[in-house]
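Review form for a predicted model. The reviewer records the input and the model, then writes brief findings.
Reviewer: anonymous (R2)
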Amino acid sequence: MPDDELLTVPDVMERLKLGRSTVYDLIRSRRLPSLTIGRCRRIPARAVREYITNELEAAA
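Model under review:
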């Protein structure tokens, strides 16, 4: 997935196998950066990869 790709919340839910409320909790807690375009929430693909990397490092 390209670095500049913007994902929707359902895209992130599918990639991380998480529920909607969990994804919004990650956004609210700033563990998963996002931006709002109009009324739509978008998450950079790079931010999802960084989140996964950070979680793996924390678990190690």
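Findings: The two ends are 25 Å apart (CA to CA).
Further findings: The mean pLDDT is 94.
Recommendation: see findings above.
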